[in-house]
């Protein structure tokens, strides 16, 4: 028997391409992974068709003997379609398990058709089933990888967005800026905060900056370093920097850690920092009436 | 274009990068030309203002070292075809550095300086490699991703 | 545009705009000329406008710090104005906080501060 290992599989795919798609969809429904709440029938069918087409192409060109590697060029199409489908599905909230089961559901319709082939010599059938299993399994594993990748990208993007959200520089008054810091201050964020702050100083020609750390959970040596470096950069640009919101506990910790703030002004509350800042730019806060 | 034999780096350190320009380092004006060439290329290829300033500062430090401590040297700029990476190599035939680790630490100076130059350049550049031996000159390679 | 950097007298301060292509030799020469001018005239301050500088490395930083020291001995304050954000970040990273100098956002700010003295 001189035919290649993929001959029967390709015959099955070519003879009943449409039928396989329908049955694949059917299995997906049975397994509860065809999310009709998220995808219309037409959408699901179109996705399955694209995937199966690319999968067949890969089998035709990308299997040597019984060996294949989904990273090879011959599998480009499948990887591209898969990337699209996964992106779509991740964005609509499909889980990785659902996605893997969705791919694995392709086995049943293929097995059934291989079994029905005339050539049904048992050893050939076993060989074909094994190859299909390996192919579909690799397909599913790859899907899972893409899926996880896609989710990581989303997490990354969200982290980036949160980073930007959490470091707003607010113009409190003419030439007075405040930077309310909240949460933790790691190196990446400190850098981001510093750049953003210095740029705003330039744009607004701000003379005083209040960095308020009321919302910063803990101040260890590293956080203190970040704060002092930011303060030093602010001073180099020609603005004054006040660090406010230093609670008694933080003050104690800083002294215990031996952190020397040098010439940077510090205040316990943003209230006093604000009145000092306004004074610097020439304003006094005055009470009106007799209340 | 191959590096001259007295540069301690060769093509294997540059990967697929090609020579963009080469500068002689003799007077302090040459250091300005070299770092401005680097800055211009980075800006033209979309590098952020901060990354330009950081890398150009590092370039200025190593170019000055070659001029002041080694009586001059040469400076080459290499780029990859995708314009995503820029590498500079600066080499001299000066006295070399006996203790590189010491020279890279803040506060060390071989004469008159503040002793932050080399260590500072290392901190500012993405990739920083130095090859030197007493009497054999000094070569520094630095890279930045655009 | 290499050449002699001009020194202008504004009120009782010497104003210098430093260009981006200034060389080590030129900046040392500038330091020398400024020191002489401070000693000759009755000067309260030296204002260095570095807004054109794309980089300030350890050498330039050191010269500026020395100039501040010299001025102080001659009873004048040195202001650096117009430092770019990227330069400030890089200097801090180099560990050069320049405590010797005074800083201001712009020439106007520096002059206002000098008048208050």
From TrEMBL, chain A:
Domain spans labelled STAS: 166-277
Keywords of the record: Phosphoprotein
Any matching Pfam family: STAS
Alphabetized CDD domains for the sequence: STAS_RsbR_RsbS_like (cd07041)
Record flagged with keyword Transmembrane: no
Domain of life: Bacteria
Gene3D superfamilies found in the cross-reference section: STAS domain (3.30.750.24)
Name the record gives this protein: RsbT co-antagonist protein RsbR
Tagged with keyword Calcium: no
From TrEMBL, chain B:
Histidine kinase/HSP90-like ATPase domain segment(s): 31-143
Superkingdom, natural source: Bacteria
SUPFAM superfamilies membership: ATPase domain of HSP90 chaperone/DNA topoisomerase II/histidine kinase
GO MF terms held by the record: kinase activity
Keyword Transcription regulation: no
UniProt organism field: Sulfitobacter delicatus
Keywords: Kinase, Transferase
Protein name: Serine/threonine-protein kinase RsbT
Automatic annotation (TrEMBL), chain C:
Superkingdom classification of source: Bacteria
Domain STAS: 3-114
InterPro entries, A to Z: Bact_StressResp_Reg, STAS_dom, STAS_dom_sf
The name this protein goes by in its record: RsbT antagonist protein RsbS
Source species of the chain: Sulfitobacter delicatus
């Amino acid at each position: 028997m001189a035919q290649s290992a993929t001959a029967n599989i390709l015959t099955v795919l070519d003879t009943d391409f449409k039928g396989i798609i329908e049955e694949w969809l059917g299995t997906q429904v049975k397994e509860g992974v065809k999310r009709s709440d998220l995808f219309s029938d037409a959408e699901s069918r179109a996705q399955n068709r694209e995937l199966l087409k690319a999968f067949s192409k890969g089998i035709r060109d990308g299997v040597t003997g019984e060996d294949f590697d989904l990273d090879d060029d011959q599998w480009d199409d499948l990887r591209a379609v898969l990337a699209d489908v996964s992106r779509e599905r991740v964005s609509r909230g499909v889980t990785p398990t659902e996605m893997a089961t969705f791919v694995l559901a392709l086995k049943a319709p293929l097995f059934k058709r291989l079994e029905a082939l005339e050539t049904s010599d048992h050893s050939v059938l076993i060989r074909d089933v094994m190859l299909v299993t390996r192919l579909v399994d690799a397909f599913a594993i790859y899907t899972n990888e893409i899926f996880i990748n896609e989710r990581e990208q989303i997490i990354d993007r969200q982290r980036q967005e949160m980073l930007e959200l959490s470091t707003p520089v607010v113009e409190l008054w003419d030439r007075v800026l405040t930077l309310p810091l909240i949460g933790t201050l790691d190196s990446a964020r400190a850098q981001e905060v510093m750049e953003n702050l210095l740029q705003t100083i330039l744009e607004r020609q701000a003379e005083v900056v209040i960095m308020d750390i009321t919302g910063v959970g803990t101040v260890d040596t590293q956080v203190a370093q970040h704060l002092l470096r930011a303060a030093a950069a602010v001073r180099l640009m020609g603005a004054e920097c006040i660090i406010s919101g230093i609670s008694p506990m933080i003050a104690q910790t800083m002294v215990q850690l031996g952190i020397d703030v040098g010439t940077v002004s510090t205040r316990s509350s943003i209230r006093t920092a604000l009145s000092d800042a306004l004074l610097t730019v020439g304003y006094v806060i005055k009470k009106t009436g007799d209340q | 274009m191959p590096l001259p034999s007295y540069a301690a780096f060769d093509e294997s350190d540059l990967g697929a990068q090609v020579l963009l320009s080469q500068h002689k380092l003799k007077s302090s004006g040459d250091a300005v030309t070299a770092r401005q060439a680097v800055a211009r290329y980075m800006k033209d290829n979309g590098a952020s203002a901060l990354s330009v300033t950081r890398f150009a500062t590092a370039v200025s430090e190593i170019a000055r070292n070659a001029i002041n401590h080694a009586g001059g040297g040469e400076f080459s700029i290499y780029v990859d075809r995708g314009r995503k990476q820029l590498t500079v190599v600066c080499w001299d035939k000066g006295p070399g550095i006996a203790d590189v680790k010491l020279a890279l630490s803040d506060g060390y100076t071989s004469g008159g300086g503040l002793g932050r130059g080399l260590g500072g350049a290392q901190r500012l550049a993405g990739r920083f490699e130095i090859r030197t031996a007493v009497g054999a000159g000094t070569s520094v390679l630095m890279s930045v991703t655009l | 545009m290499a050449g002699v950097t001009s020194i202008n007298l504004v009120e009782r301060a010497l104003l210098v705009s430093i260009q981006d292509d200034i060389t080590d030799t030129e900046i040392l020469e500038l330091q020398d000329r400024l020191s002489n001018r401070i000693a000759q005239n009755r000067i309260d301050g030296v204002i260095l406008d570095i807004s054109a500088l794309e980089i300030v490395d350890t050498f330039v930083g050191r010269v500026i710090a020395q100039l501040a020291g010299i001025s102080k001995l001659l009873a004048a304050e040195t202001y650096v104005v117009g430092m770019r954000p990227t330069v400030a970040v890089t200097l801090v990273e180099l560990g050069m906080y320049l405590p010797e100098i005074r800083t201001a956002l712009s020439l106007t700010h520096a002059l206002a501060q000098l008048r208050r003295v």
